[in-house]
Amino acid sequence: MALPDWPYEDDADPLPLSTAPVPEYGSGSLADLLPTLAAGLGVPGLTAAIPELTPADRNCVFLIDGLGWEQIRSHPDEAPYLHSLLPTSRGNTGRPLTAGFPATTATSLASVGTGLPPGAHGLTGYTTRNPATGELMNQLRWRPWTDPHIWQPYPTVFQLADAAGVHTAQVSSPDFQNTPLTKIALSGGTFRGRLTGEDRMDLAAAQLGAADRSLIYTYYSEVDSKGHRFGTASDAWRGQLMYVDRLVQRLAEQLPPRSALYVTADHGMIDIPFDEESRIDVDEDWELGAGVALLGGEGRARHVYAVPGAQNDVLAVWREVLGEQFWVASRDEAIAAGWFGPEIDERVYGRIGDVVAAAHADVAITASRREPHESAMAGMHGSMTPVEQLVPLFEVRS
What we know:
By secondary structure, this protein is of the alpha/beta class. The protein has helices at residues 33-40, 69-73, 80-84, 89-92, 105-114, 118-121, 148-151, 157-163, 180-185, 197-208, 222-230, 235-252, 286-289, 311-322, 331-336, 346-349, 372-375, 386-389, and strands at residues 58-64, 97-98, 127-129, 136-138, 167-172, 190-193, 214-220, 259-264, 270-271, 279-281, 292-298, 301-306, 326-330, 355-359, 364-366, 379-380, 390-391, 394-397. It is globular. 55% of the residues are buried.
């Protein structure tokens, strides 16, 4: 199985930005999935960006939060059905997709639902600065409040499909029905809330067969939750993996005729050891904290906002201190390298950090006082390493 040549060799010098494995925007990223499926359904204005996929009349996307490609490959006993689907990925090429940067839930779900890379939809991290207020905006929990449709003004693929006469539905937890993230990333057609995983699979299959042309989305979050809390080496995480393996098989066995089921994820996950070498605490490190006004992002993918006039100094210090373990770029360098996509909307430019740091080694930048909950997580994600960035695109057809 041929995968990209991901740079994992240790270097004595700071990591060249050219070695960062940029996501496959435009041909093999999460943002390309729904436009490809909708184009195959005849929705105008959309392009089939993933050339390996063959159109189907009825399409269902099952997104499993936190279940990356590498986790499935390394757990054949816990996920025998998912493991058996590895050769089907990305149009039976046996290859994964890339999540996009940063590899985090808010960013990835916005990419999936809008069909746009982060530089366009604007959800460029777990937390980013709102240029209008100067405050950090949590784009998963939507705090502090800002108008969702100003923050992300583009229509979703579901809205475009619904307008074109395609039957569209989202089947998920009722808790997500009215969240701002759902409204700006996944709305369009109907929302069907179901509490249990089994009920979601059964309803997704029924919705799939409710029309001659359909685009259905369903979601499961607990693999990610258990990974954050206990790590991917834990019994709790493996139990969730076994459960979701059965859910996928349950849905696959109910597909109506002329259907395609696509199983994917928003990111993978990596366990970070609880030691000072692996968890670099900015709240206890005066050197890294000097000149920093706001610390955004998350442990594996940081947006650093400098006090006015200190941008170059902060970049120099972060690159000197962290450059062997992180790809450390200025805002303009990260944009030029394509980390957030081929183009950046003007409204998004100021949301990106003056300095952007993406982890290469098995380390995280924590903030024990500012982010006590996030700093205590066992499993993390966000960067461009294979374990975080690569996600499946398994396919089952009826």
